[in-house]
């Protein structure tokens, strides 16, 4: 009897009856909390206590006869699938999928993509069934090294997509919750309003001196009108959100959005698109100038890290920096400010620059 | 004299022909038992024969008996037409039902289960079996099916209307298979009568109804439940047991594939090459296969090639296995909390560990765990069909579960919205032994029926009780051209609807949750039944909201001695969930009504009795509806659906529940009145009916006088007695003439009157037009008037 009640709540599942650890032969009857673990090395099933007993002292060979693989305790884990073959298949797939993560938009035609899929599937099957394992493994590693960048890129894309999806789902859930709340509130309000209306009628009947029938009629009329208004207001917003066409579409729309996302972001530009590109001159490596030679060779000068190229670049930059700035226009824009000085400066700078250019080259 | 069904029908015909000409869908409510079927049929047939295109009529009904009835009506109609016209028209009308009902093969027809019949039939008729035979192998074939090939393919059966029985008889005579005769003759028929499922269930519709042309006229009769039919046709339940069977099926399939590889690798290779080319190519010659089709797969997908990773048979089987294993993992998820010994409060767990998930999140989890992508999942059902065909499997019933899983896979990957996965640890509410069930429920009735509305230009949805009419277009997502509820014209007041809100002791009666088990309420209900069993001649039908409530109330009545009292006047019979027991009870009930004092049948408002069974004439003189038949609101599936309706169609929970309860109540009431010479009493016994009476069908509302509402039991009894006395007066058929049945002269008079009316209206309109802007104001006044009228009542 006690056994029956103890088992009453626990569902009988296939394989429950022969829940016996193949290693220590203890059964679920003796140990109701028995858990089975497997090691992805050989997928032999054993109970938790066996794992503790055998592998606590470090790596040891699998206790199942004829297996002889060395297992580590760390890698033991709970079996996810009932079918151990599927468990193994999924592990292999995890490995394969990490490497072969091409996406459909990378292929020119659908047929190419399908061929690729089949190729991958065949590779997986080879690994699964032990056909040409070494050749397949080498193919796998070869592919992985060759396409490392693409693989990592696709992996991040995938990650992003799943994150997006999760965020969207969370947002949808939240929205649904809000809507639910709103609907409940609306209902409550309505109930409250009705209640109040009734109370008011009673009040009027008690204190007022109108005939009772009139009061009741009046209140009913008000209520009907109110209800009608409420219905209208409810019917109006139904159009944008509730139309079936809007309903069937968002799926494609969403799909578009998530595929458009993965354009890689540009590095941050602190100058907002301003560059110091030289458009009026080209900086040369070597400028002939007698007193520059001294600066190049004198250790007193170079020891501190002074370089002539730096000086030249700065000189050139300063010489040309005013070009392309049309002070006249800016002044016209400013309007009231006196512009004579600025204009004179610009001209002088240009002349100086021209001279410098001539002199240097 | 032409026995025309009467004024509403004439009105109907005017509006209806308009719909047919213009194209468009309509919702019509016509009182039950007033010749709805025959008037629709005669109208459409006349229309069909008048125009040269001969648009085909597809008439869908719900049950076998209704199909049969419609066929009989059609037959007599055609006979009448032939008599009147003096010639036989070139006309074919056929009914289609399952193989189980139409099989003639001596051993197959003895099978009890429909699935077995289908599977065995397929093994005897499939195309590859015939090829085998031609190759000289020793295989058994169905002679009835083979004989069909000897006939002209467009003339398998002579013109005329064939009832199901007639088909069977003809088939036996000519040694030809009635089922395949009907299937193959469908393109050549003028009228096809079959069950909803042939059009709504995507698995079957794809196969049976694909070739029907666009201009067909589609009629859904008895369609008050059509939204539920739509939903059911796309919902799938998977239990652990069926998942186990699916695994077994996959293993079998694997073995078959390896076998075939060693013996006939060429065939697999051929299939593979076809699949590389695309699904459509692989699709040829599957017209008569019994195995499933793709559920509502979009057309663009069919043109696409099958994804590469399930092209090869062995890859696909591994794929299926992985998917089934994943589902098993899901199923154990629901159980996990139960397995931990620390939890002991069972009821709490029951509430806690129901998991509901949307398809996208399911797919995401699936991908994370088993690396199954969405796309191959979508092709699952189609791929399985193709594989089964290639392997030439004959024992299909072994793969039923696998097929279910594959259909599930396709659906879950195809639809993001309108579906929900609900995982419950218990199969039913009362179960104590956990058995996880994965419900994949469709929440949107519009999905299944959408292809029908898209394809056919005129769809008519009709029933005796489909009020409120505007609910249906909303739920099914279509626009109507005509939406009309017709009232009944009767020569006498032949039915008496009443609303009883109080017992004789003035205590309000209701099946509301708080007071339903109070002794006073139960006693008052008991008294009501007792009083009516005293005064009603012949049969009484009593409807309860649920089996559970019925059981509890019956046991309480037993304790109060009410049943003993009823027993003095009538036999008491009870409907049970078991259909065989129920049919036995019905049989006894009929016998008791035919000879004796009659009987009381206690049944449930959503059970079998309330749906398909008529209590005409003395089989039902009163019907009592005890309590408002609300649905069980704690069900997860219902909750999900309510939420969906609110979010997407702006139908509020309470509105829908009340609508649903009232359509079932109306359906129950409609059971007793099945014709113009029939009479009966309809009692709605609940306080809450008082407010809901506006939701009843128009024809009942019209007959429901104000003085018959808000009654107590004794007043109701007095009123019923008076009614029965008037009904006892002699009533001749000719009293009805000119009122509820019209002769040709009456019709002509009506036509004149209508025309006069029209002229008057036009003149009025012209006068109004002269006045210009005044029209708008008048409309407002009218609105106000309506409001005031409501108040006065």
TrEMBL record, chain A:
CDD domains given for it? RING-HC_TFB3-like
| Compartment(s) | Nucleus
InterPro entries cross-referenced by the UniProt entry:
MAT1/Tfb3, MAT1_centre, Znf_RING, Znf_RING/FYVE/PHD, Znf_RING_CS
List the keywords (alphabetical).
Answer: Metal-binding, Nucleus, Zinc, Zinc-finger
Q: Is this entry keyworded Transmembrane helix?
A: no
Instruction: Locate the compositionally biased regions of type Basic and acidic residues.
Output: 169-199
**What is the protein named?**
RNA polymerase II transcription factor B subunit 3
Please give the organism. Glutinoglossum americanum
UniProtKB/TrEMBL annotation, chain B:
State the coiled-coil residue ranges: 236-263
One MF term in GO for this entry? hydrolase activity, acting on acid anhydrides, in phosphorus-containing anhydrides
In short, the EC number is 5.6.2.3
What are the names of the required cofactors? [4Fe-4S] cluster
Per UniProt, subcellular location reads as:
Nucleus
Is Transport set as a keyword in this record? no
Q: Which UniProt keywords apply?
A: 4Fe-4S, ATP-binding, Coiled coil, DNA damage, DNA repair, DNA-binding, Helicase, Hydrolase, Iron, Iron-sulfur, Isomerase, Metal-binding, Nucleotide-binding, Nucleus
Name assigned to this protein: DNA 5'-3' helicase
Q: Which organism is it from?
A: Glutinoglossum americanum
> Highest lineage ranks of the organism?
Eukaryota, Fungi, Dikarya, Ascomycota, Pezizomycotina
Q: Which gene encodes it?
A: RAD15
């Amino acid at each position: 009897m006690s056994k029956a009640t103890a088992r009453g709540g626990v569902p009988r599942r296939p394989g429950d009856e022969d829940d016996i650890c193949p290693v220590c032969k203890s059964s679920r009857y003796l140990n109701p909390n028995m858990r089975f673990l497997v090691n992805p090395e050989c997928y032999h099933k054993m109970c938790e206590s066996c794992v503790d007993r055998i592998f606590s002292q470090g790596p040891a060979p699998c206790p199942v006869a004829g297996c002889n693989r060395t297992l580590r305790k760390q890698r033991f884990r709970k079996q996810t699938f009932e079918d151990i073959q599927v468990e193994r298949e999924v592990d292999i797939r995890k490995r394969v999928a990490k490497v072969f993560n091409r996406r459909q938009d990378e292929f020119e035609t659908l047929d190419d993509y399908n061929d690729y899929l089949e190729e991958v599937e065949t590779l997986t099957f080879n690994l699964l069934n032990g056909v040409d394992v070494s050749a397949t493994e080498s193919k796998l590693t070869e592919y992985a090294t060759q396409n490392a960048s693409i693989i990592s890129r696709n992996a991040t894309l995938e990650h992003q997509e799943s994150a997006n999806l999760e965020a969207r789902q969370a947002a949808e859930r939240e929205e649904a919750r809000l809507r639910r709340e709103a609907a409940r509130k609306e209902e409550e309000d309505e109930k409250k309003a009705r209640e109040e209306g009734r109370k008011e009628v009673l009040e009027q009947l008690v204190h007022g001196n109108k005939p009772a029938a009139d009061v009741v009629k009046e209140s009913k009329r008000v209520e009907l009108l109110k209800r009608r208004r409420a219905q209208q207001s409810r019917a109006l917003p139904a159009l944008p959100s509730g139309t079936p066409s809007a309903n069937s579409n968002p799926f494609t729309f969403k799909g578009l959005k998530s595929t458009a996302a993965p354009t890689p972001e540009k590095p941050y530009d602190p100058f907002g698109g301003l560059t110091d590109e030289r458009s009026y001159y080209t900086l040369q490596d070597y400028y002939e100038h007698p007193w520059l030679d001294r600066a190049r060779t004198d250790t007193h000068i170079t020891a501190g890290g002074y370089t002539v190229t730096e000086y030249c670049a700065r000189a050139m930059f300063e010489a040309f920096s005013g070009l392309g700035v049309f002070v006249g226009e800016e002044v016209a824009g400013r309007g009231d400010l006196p512009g004579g000085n600025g204009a004179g400066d610009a001209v002088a700078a240009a002349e100086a620059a021209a001279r410098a250019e001539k002199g240097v080259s | 004299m032409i026995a025309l069904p009467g004024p509403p029908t004439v009105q109907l015909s005017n509006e209806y022909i308009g719909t047919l000409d213009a194209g468009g869908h309509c919702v019509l409510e016509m009182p039950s038992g007033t010749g709805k079927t025959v008037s629709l049929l005669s109208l459409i047939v006349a229309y069909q024969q008048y125009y040269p295109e001969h648009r085909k009529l597809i008439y869908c009904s719900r049950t076998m008996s209704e199909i049969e009835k419609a066929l009989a009506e059609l037959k007599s109609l055609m006979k009448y037409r032939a008599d009147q016209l003096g010639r036989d028209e070139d006309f074919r009308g056929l009914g289609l039902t399952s193989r189980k009902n139409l099989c003639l093969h001596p051993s197959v027809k003895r099978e009890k289960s429909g699935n077995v019949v289908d599977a065995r039939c397929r093994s005897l008729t499939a195309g590859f079996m015939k090829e085998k035979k031609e190759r000289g192998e020793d295989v058994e074939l169905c002679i009835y099916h083979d004989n069909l090939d000897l006939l002209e393919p467009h003339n398998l059966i002579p013109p005329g209307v064939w009832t199901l029985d007639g088909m069977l008889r003809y088939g036996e005579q000519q040694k030809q298979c009635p089922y395949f005769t009907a299937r193959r003759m469908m393109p050549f028929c003028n009228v096809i009568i079959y069950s909803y499922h042939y059009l709504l269930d995507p698995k079957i519709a794809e196969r049976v109804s694909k070739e029907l042309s666009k201009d067909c006229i589609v009629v859904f009769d008895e369609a008050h439940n059509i939204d539920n039919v739509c939903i059911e046709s796309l919902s799938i339940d998977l239990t652990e047991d069926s998942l186990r069977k699916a695994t077994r099926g996959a293993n079998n399939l694997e073995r078959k594939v390896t076998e075939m590889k060693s013996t006939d690798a060429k065939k697999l290779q051929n299939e593979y090459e076809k699949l590389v080319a695309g699904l459509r190519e692989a699709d040829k010659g599957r017209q008569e296969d019994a195995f499933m089709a793709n559920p509502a797969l979009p057309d663009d997908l069919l043109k696409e090639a099958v994804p590469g990773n399930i092209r090869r048979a062995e890859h696909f089987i591994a794929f299926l296995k992985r998917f089934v294993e994943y589902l098993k993992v899901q199923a154990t998820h629901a159980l996990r909390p139960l397995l931990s010994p620390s939890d002991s409060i069972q009821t709490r767990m029951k509430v806690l560990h129901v998991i509901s998930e949307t398809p996208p999140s399911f797919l995401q989890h699936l991908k994370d765990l088993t690396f199954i992508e969405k796309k191959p999942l979508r092709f699952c059902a189609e791929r399985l069909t193709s594989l089964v065909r290639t392997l030439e499997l004959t024992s299909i019933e072994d793969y039923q579960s696998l097929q279910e899983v594959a259909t599930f896979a396709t659906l879950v990957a195809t639809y993001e919205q309108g579906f929900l996965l609900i995982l419950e640890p218990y199969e039913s509410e009362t179960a104590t032994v956990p058995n996880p069930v994965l419900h994949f429920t469709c929440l949107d009735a519009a999905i299944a029926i959408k292809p029908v509305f898209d394809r056919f230009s005129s769809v008519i949805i009709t029933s005796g009780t489909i009020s409120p009419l505007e609910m249906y277009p909303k739920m099914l997502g279509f626009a109507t051209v005509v939406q009309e509820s017709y009232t009944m014209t009767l020569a006498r007041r032949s039915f008496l609807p009443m609303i009883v809100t109080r017992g004789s002791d003035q205590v309000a009666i209701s099946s509301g949750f708080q007071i339903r088990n109070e002794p006073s309420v139960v006693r008052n209900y008991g008294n009501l039944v007792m009083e009516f069993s005293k005064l009603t001649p012949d049969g009484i039908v009593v409807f309860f909201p649920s089996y559970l409530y019925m059981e509890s109330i019956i046991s309480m009545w037993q304790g109060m001695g009410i049943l003993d009292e009823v027993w003095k006047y009538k036999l008491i019979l009870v409907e049970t969930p078991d259909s065989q027991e129920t049919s036995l009870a019905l049989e006894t009930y009929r016998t008791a009504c035919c000879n004796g004092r009659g009987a009381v049948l206690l049944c449930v408002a959503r059970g079998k009795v309330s749906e398909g069974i008529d209590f005409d004439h003395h089989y039902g003189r009163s019907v009592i509806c005890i309590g408002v038949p609300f649905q069980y609101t704690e069900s997860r599936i219902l909750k999900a659906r309510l939420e969906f309706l609110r979010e997407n169609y702006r139908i509020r929970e309470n509105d829908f529940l009340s609508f649903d309860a009232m359509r079932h109540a109306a359906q129950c009431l409609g059971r007793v009145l099945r014709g113009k010479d029939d009479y009966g009493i309809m009692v709605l016994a609940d306080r809450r009916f008082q407010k809901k009476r506006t939701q009843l069908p128009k024809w009942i509302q019209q007959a429901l006088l104000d003085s018959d509402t808000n009654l107590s039991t004794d007043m109701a009894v007095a009123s019923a007695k008076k009614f029965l006395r008037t009904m006892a007066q002699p009533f001749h058929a000719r009293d009805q003439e000119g009122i509820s049945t019209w002769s040709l002269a009456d019709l002509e008079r009506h036509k004149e009157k209508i025309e006069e009316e029209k002229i008057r209206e036009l003149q009025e309109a012209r006068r109004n037009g002269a006045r210009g802007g005044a029209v708008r104001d008048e409309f407002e006044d009218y609105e106000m008037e309506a409001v005031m009228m409501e108040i006065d009542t």
